[in-house]
Amino acid sequence: MPNLLDISKLTKEQKKQLLEKAREKLGISKLQEVTGRSRKQIYLYIRGFDERGKELDIPNEVMEKVVNALSIDEVYDVVHGFNPKEVTINDAIAVIAKAVRDPGFRNVFFMLLQKQFGEYLKQTAQSYLVTKEDLELFEKLLKESKSKKTAEDRINYLRRALAELNYELSPDRLKDYILELVEENRGRAEHTAKALKLFIKEVVKLRDSHLARELYDSFKIPKAKTNYRPVSLSLDTLKQILNNIEELGAKAFFLILAETGLRVGEVLNLRVDQVDLEHRVIRIMKESETKRAYISFLHEGTVKWLKEVYLPYREDFVKRYELSVRKLAEANPDQNIDIEAWKTKLFPFREDMLRAEIKIAMRKVGKEFRLYDLRSFFASYMIKQGVSPMIVNLLQGRTPPQQFQILQQHYFVISDIELQQYYEKHAPRLLD
């Protein structure tokens, strides 16, 4: 709040109103503690004059503490006469339009944005949305410069990767994605990495050379002996990070990643109907030649929090912004935004914003790492609890379908109920 409000420019009446609002919100005892002033002094400040009738002005150091004790909505309601909750997308568009026309306003506007949303702006600036025109250009360039077989291979690997990345490229997501592919199939990871690098070099670079360099350097083409060593994490550290994540979408995203050990893309692409809260089951139902990620589970405490806290927040978010997303889709037909699919997503938020919120919390705790490392944490945590690596592989969808069928038919028989029992007894819990 101090970054956006100049205390010295508040009128005496505004100061009194803010102090009164803080008294109503906190109670006089708590307000005494926050401001370091006595009960009598606070009432004199609110009244505006002392016992001799002399006019009083509330010191700036007191007002800073008062403002920090109030929410942005409460402060703006007093200072500017409006509640930010009532601001609409049309208001935001009007501000942007003024910034385009007025250089002075634009300068102050961006200064305020940088102060309040520095991390978010950085994350968004490192994200590239792939369009239909981008793909058409890439295909044209390949057909002109590569053999037919090579061009087809590069295009197929790229299209599959972009679909799994939701047609959005960012350094952090690319790092995690290539690591996930290496875990599944090093050959596919190598071909995919080559296709992505070529696309970034030939297409993204034409649109934004600086961002293209960030994306290109964010991952390497996997080699035969390349091994990634995940960061060592503790359950206490993850609990601290979770408690420091303020935005509920990011909090739920991090919670499910840490407690299930699923791949980032799998959790990000979950639909609401894939999460059975009654039976505490997540049905991924994703099966390919290299992986069998078909089911995972949730703890009872996690389900309770999702029901009571996250899902109402998610539903409100979708209702409030559905019209805005529709307008965005209409204005950008080349991005193929599917409104109905967006409404069914468990996490209908931009991935870069989720990552930004989580990264801010990591920095508060003093432990930064890739979200991919949560998958490694889950595996090592379970094994330390005495769980068989085979069970861990089944829970994380790491066992290829063919191998799993052989195990089921000849060596190893386990039901979903038994898998859930292993999960409930041994899987990490961040809310307990």
TrEMBL record:
GO BP, one annotated term: DNA integration
InterPro entries: Integrase_catalytic
Domain Tyr recombinase, residue spans: 228-424
CDD domains with a match to the protein in the record: DNA_BRE_C
Tree of life domain: Archaea
Pfam families for the chain: Phage_integrase
Coiled coil ranges: none
GO molecular function, one term: DNA binding
Designated name of the protein: Putative phage integrase
